[in-house]
Amino acid sequence: MSTLEEKFEAATAAREIPGTILLATSSDGKFQYQKAFGPATPTKPLDLKATMILASCTKLMTTIAALQCVERGQIGLDDEVSGVLHELKDPKILTGFTEGENGEPIYEAAKTAITVRHLLTHTSGLGHDAMHPIYPKWRKAMGHPPYAGDVQQSLLHNITIPLMYEPGTSWSYGVSLDWVGELAARLNNTTLENFMEKNIWTPLGIKNLTFHQDLKPDVKKNLVKMTSRNGPEGAKYGMPQREAGKVEWSDEIIYEDPTKYEAGGGGAVGSPVEYLKIMHSILANDGKLLKWETIGEMFKPQLSAGPLKAWMDYIGVPFLQGAFSIPPAGTKMQWGIGGMLWDQDAETGKKKGTLCWSGLPNLIWTIDREAGLACMYAGNVIPFGDFKSGNFQVLFEKEIYARYEKFLKEGK
């Protein structure tokens, strides 16, 4: 029977999956796994110095930044954010459009102010142009330029949008964490890059995470080339194809470089190996980033009935079953602060109480405090939801849990 390593070597060589980095650590650091497979570029093998487009894996760092502000007493989890984020004062809900080809937007005033917790749990009412067609239609009706997340456009242009529902009553993946990044920066009269450098990266000895590749030469030098399953172009916001062919090298731009802004919801690029240091700090409750009671709040279910139903509907779409990081149909799920929260053990290997989230080019981090194990699967391929990558991520995680359990039994 082939080993885990042999399977990944064969799969990356055959271009079933792109070059991939697999990482794991126990809370005490005695159990470690770090391995790179396959190519980083058409001419360069992947190694553990590689950097990748992290996309929505950025959200964990932005969440930590906001929680640090809460711990300092700068704002409370259930405080309104409009005193700092004045753009979110007196929010309006977009309920539809008047009749006709050039219909005008119809709004109603929200009755509930947006809080920090709403933003951190995606219950603010804000969505995203790439997922909710109402926004491109709204921008056209308003005469606004379209959303442009990969070009030199203002971050505030992209994220200053009306709500889709009353805050706290539903769930929608969108620009909420971009606003959280703005919140942390404004509260401290700095940039999000500088805040994370001082309060997250430097305390952990992290050198190669950033929003700006031009600030850190090793990030740019070691950046893997993007790959695509659906063809070399136009795949970033496409849908994964279950019967798609081999991965191909792609020149599609995920992030503009240099970039003018720092998107807390998905703008970071850097080293998966160093990102693991952040995960380990949370797993170990080492006090370097957050207090133990704050970390405890991250792992508590946050969604009431209405938002929970919307969240379960979001991940329960039949044609995405088996896609990368999507829970098996019927799995009980919740949402914590920082990521999705598994509410039961699952056949894919995830354990109840595990907090995790993913990034657009098919990366995923998981933190299981009960077992004392954190894992990261990092392989840059678009579009998100890659089925083949999903299969290999499950293979990796199951094997790592088995090795960790053996490690514990042997008393090493």
TrEMBL record:
<dbReference type="GO" id="GO:0016787">
    <property type="term" value="F:hydrolase activity"/>
</dbReference>
<comment type="similarity">
    <text>Belongs to the class-A beta-lactamase family.</text>
</comment>
<dbReference type="InterPro" id="IPR050789">
    <property type="entry name" value="Diverse_Enzym_Activities"/>
</dbReference>
<protein>
    <submittedName>
        <fullName>Related to 1,4-butanediol diacrylate esterase</fullName>
    </submittedName>
</protein>
<dbReference type="InterPro" id="IPR012338">
    <property type="entry name" value="Beta-lactam/transpept-like"/>
</dbReference>
<keyword id="KW-0378">Hydrolase</keyword>
<dbReference type="InterPro" id="IPR001466">
    <property type="entry name" value="Beta-lactam-related"/>
</dbReference>
<feature type="domain" description="Beta-lactamase-related">
    <location>
        <begin position="5"/>
        <end position="380"/>
    </location>
</feature>
<dbReference type="Pfam" id="PF00144">
    <property type="entry name" value="Beta-lactamase"/>
</dbReference>
